[in-house]
Design brief:
The chain is mostly helical and about 250 residues long. The protein has a single domain, classed as Rossmann fold (3-Layer(aba) Sandwich). It has 10 helices and 5 strands. Strand 3, helix 6 and strand 4 form a beta-alpha-beta unit.
């Protein structure tokens, strides 16, 4: 190889990669990703929660004897809210997992309309993203999400100032559901008090949705945009060597 060829070869090997400015399409993709990332983090870092706004607030709390309901009751009591608590046995609660929400909402809607109140619905990730070994529970939670999503649209077109906050939660460390899936899922249960505080923040700010842990929001977005990665993420959470419960 001649010296000229060597010089040409070495020049080609050492050539720097093209800058984003030289590739407008690549530059636009980078800017779009940065912009989406900035919007996402701004959404979650914006905290306008004022604990004083709950002082003296009237709160009807169902399912307050165990799990996330119990933690919500503790938090509301510390914040000075006036509480009305109800509870069900676990067996009865499973039977009315959807209908109790609908009936209670129907009875309370006129009062909420008059007071410009808010509805806070504690649901589950399984009401947004179906997964294995959860068909009956997932079906009830999907129905819940659909009912309150439709109700929100109806109230909006009628200019009714009633906020509906849908809370998408995962496993809680003090919930009976955590025992029911032990050995089936690798997902770690989240601290109940922190999940309850996230629900209260969403309620006080009249947010349309609460996701705890926050990564559940990403998984819900993946459901429609990228179904294959979503399926992969779900499989990572499952201990597939464990047979489904009879």
């Amino acid at each position: 190889m001649t010296s000229a060829e060597k010089e040409k070869s070495s020049t080609g090997l050492c050539r720097p990669p093209p800058s984003p400015a030289a590739d407008p399409g690549r530059a636009m993709k980078v800017l779009l990703l940065v912009g989406l990332g900035a919007l996402f983090f701004a959404y979650y870092w914006d905290d306008n929660f004022d604990p004083a706004s709950l002082q003296g607030a009237r709160v009807l709390l169902t399912g307050a004897s165990v799990g996330i309901g119990e933690e919500l009751a503790y938090h509301y009591a510390r914040l000075g809210s006036h509480l009305v608590l109800t509870a069900h046995t676990e067996a009865l609660l499973q039977k009315v997992n959807f209908l109790s929400y609908v009936q209670l909402t129907s009875l309370a809607l006129q009062s909420l309309t008059d007071s410009k109140g808010s509805l806070v619905v504690v649901s589950s990730l399984l009401g947004r993203v179906p997964t294995s070994f959860s068909s009956p529970y997932s079906a009830a939670k999907f129905a819940l999400d659909s009912f309150f999503g439709s109700l929100r649209r109806e109230l909006d077109v009628q200019d009714v100032n009633v906020a509906i906050t849908m809370c998408v939660l995962g496993l809680q460390d003090r919930a009976s559901a955590a025992e029911g899936v032990r050995g089936v899922t690798r997902a770690k249960a989240a601290p109940g008090p922190k999940a309850a505080l996230a629900v209260i923040r969403g309620s006080a700010t009249r947010a349309s949705g609460v996701f705890y842990p926050w990564r559940f929001h990403l998984l819900c977005l993946l459901r429609g945009w990228m179904p294959q990665p979503r399926a992969w993420f779900i499989r990572q959470e499952l201990n597939i060597t464990t047979p489904a419960a009879a």
